[in-house]
Amino acid sequence: MTKKKLVVLQTDISVLTIEDKDYISLTDMLKAKDGDFFISDWLRNRNTVEFLGIWEQIHNPAFNYGEFAIIKSRAGLNSYKISVKEWVEKTNAIGLRASAGRYGGTYAYKDIAFEFGMWISPEFKIYLIKEFERLKDEEHRHLGWDIKRNLTKINYRIHTDAVKENLIPPTLTPGQINNVYASEADVLNVALFGITAKQWREINPTLKGNIRDYANISQLVCLSNLENLNALFINEGMSQAERLAKLNAIAINQMKLLTEDKRVLALEEHSGQEQ
């Protein structure tokens, strides 16, 4: 379970993600409605009950149609009122959920939350949908970035395994082995960035991390490719000097292509705005 936040017309609204499904806080949304109202006021409305019933019929095989029919027959009457908890218990509904504790309050699946937004005001519904779409776009961009970062880490494992199997004699000490790994990492650093990790630290003494932590998306994609190629070249028995020259030429060519790709440029621009 994860919790995020939307801001709709200056109202903070929580969003819970449970098993890849997004639930928006009706409790928070209600703060934007003028006057003294409760979620039960919305829930007693006949149009609301009909909408919820149709939604549950589509999404919920375990929906209790018998109890729903009883509720629907009473909805809209002045004497009738039902809470979210009662609605869920009687109909076995899944679109609404009321809970206590850390994530307490009433939450609704996004489709239902949008309908609740219309009850608050048409303007609120429009901005709610807009902000929710912005949140999902941002999540997708972050997912793409994480995939690239993880791809680089996976490829680095392939690269270090090739170093271990082909360049490290069994008689080397642990310290010597680390030196070989560092040396091979710098083959990639020099091929792509033009400097070693040590040289980068000397140039940037105040920055934390390493040269790769400050790589842009184009460089990360290229680095991922270089790691695969270097592992292949090592397995083929190519010398370090030969590999460095070949990888540098490949890096130059790939970076030219990547920096001209509109999709990559769009990702770079978004990444820069976030930083």
Short note summarizing the structure:
The chain has 275 residues and is an alpha+beta fold. The protein has twelve helices and five strands. The longest helix is centred in the middle third of the chain and has 46 residues, at 122-167.
Written overview of the protein:
- The protein is of the alpha+beta class.
- It folds into two domains: 2-120, no CATH class; 140-274, no CATH class.
- It is built from twelve helices and five strands.
- It has helices at residues 26-29, 39-43, 46-59, 65-74, 84-91, 110-120, 122-167, 174-193, 197-203, 217-235, 240-258, 262-274, and strands spanning 2-8, 11-18, 21-25, 96-99, 105-109.
- It has a five-stranded antiparallel beta sheet with strand order 1-2-3-5-4.
- A hairpin with a 2-residue loop joins strand 2 (11-18) and strand 3 (21-25).
- Helix 3 (46-59) runs antiparallel to helix 4 (65-74), helix 7 packs across helix 8 (174-193) and helix 7 runs parallel beside helix 10.
- The longest helix has 46 residues, at 122-167.
- The protein starts with a strand and ends with a helix.
- The mean pLDDT is 82.
Secondary structure tally: strands? 5
Strand order of the largest sheet: 1-2-3-5-4
Mean pLDDT: 82
**What is the domain total for the residues?**
2
Question: Features of this protein?
Answer:
alpha+beta; elongated; 64% helix; 275 residues
